[in-house]
Amino acid sequence: MYANGGDASGIFPTDGCLGQAGWSTDRMAQEAEKYGGKVMSVSSVRVNHGSDGITNQVIFSTNRGEVTISGTNFYKAFNLRAPGAIHLTSGLFNIERK
Asked: Which domain of life is it from (predicted)?
């Protein structure tokens, strides 16, 4: 949704910390339907790093198949929606499963 130029006006934390509440998970799902549907499960994730010191791609294996997001768009969308002090501080990041 974010990468395809969709409405991103509600993609921020739901706790109202920015003066208004972000979209609920139901509203996020409605918006996702406009762009191929919501992702219900992620079985794995991997990242591709470039020689320029940034994350180029984030690739998710999902119930919808493989979903690839540019590193830049993941960085922006994650930081818009992340709660509290959780955020990515640079364009070079990794994702690990706990």
From this structure: Bacteria
